[in-house]
Amino acid sequence: MAESLEKQARRFADDISDLLNRTVTDGIRVSSLKTADGYGIIGVGVSKNRSTSLPIPITPTKKDAVVFLYLLHSYEPDPEGVYLTMTQSTMSLYTSPAMEDDQLIVGIDYARNPGNQFPGAHLHVAGLRDDLDAVYLGDERKTRKLRDLHIPVGGKRFRPSLEDLVEFMVTEEMVDPRPDWKQVVKEHRARWEAIQLKAAVRRNQEDAAAALREAGWDVIAPDFET
User: Among 107, 113, 111, 125, which Cα is nearest to 164's?
Assistant: First the structure.
């Protein structure tokens, strides 16, 4: 029997705290908050009076952080009302806790049901380019910056995870991580991939059964007739 939605959200928030505090932060507490309409949010410092997350300094020691993480997830029950489903997600790195647009390094955004033509899972990167207007054929904007581009990344099921962002910060030497950060990332990435795999199987049961049969399993379809 699946856990309640609230327990799943709290466990997910605890997993995020564990990942960050065992790799690139110290004492960060990510929490979940259920809203009155049955939906909820996950972030740092979220409360009934605050629906946005606080910036997370990326440093596991007393050193001053040089990058800051903004992390906020919105969730709801899946169509069957059994499992937690992310409806929106933002994970962005900035060079300042002010998190101004021109301080963005990279941002990973996800919208389960995007309200525009852009891919639900996409990446934003910041930088200077003077030639983008020449390849922009739309008529809604007169100009655009590099960070305005929505770079598709993996779709709904296989989009980048926080583990990828932690690895990016470490390998690009933005932070001095804890000694065992690689093992922690590996552990959490395996957990994330298992969650996504189970979700994919639930939505593609015939394909999953076919793959198991090809591997030698005996798979019998359930009989829903009464």
Answer: 107
Q: How far is 70 from 116, CA to CA, in rounded Å?
A: 23
Contact, 111 vs 124, CB < 8 A? no
Which residue, 102, 95, 155, 142, is CA-closest to 126? 102
Sequence-separated (6 or more) residues with CB below 8 Å from residue 18: 188
Q: Is the pLDDT of residue 156 over 60?
A: yes
Name the DSSP letter for residue 155: T
Extents of the domains making up the chain: 5-214
**164, pLDDT greater than 80:** yes
Half-sphere exposure of 31 (CA within 13 A, CB side): 14
Q: What is the pLDDT of residues 173-191, one digit of tens each?
A: 999 999 999 999 999 999 9
pLDDT category, 2, cuts 50, 70, 90?
low
pTM: 0.89
CA distance 43 to 90: 10
Rounded distance between C-alpha atoms, residue 14 and residue 165, angstroms = 18
Structure tokens at 76: 């709801």
Q: Rounded to an integer, what distance in angstroms lies between the CA atom of residue 221 and that of residue 94? A: 49
Please answer whether residues 41 and 32 qualify as being in contact, where contact means their C-beta atoms are separated by less than 8 angstroms.
yes
Distances (CA, A) of 211 to 4, 155, 215, 220: 31, 22, 6, 13
1, 83 in Cβ contact below 8 A? no
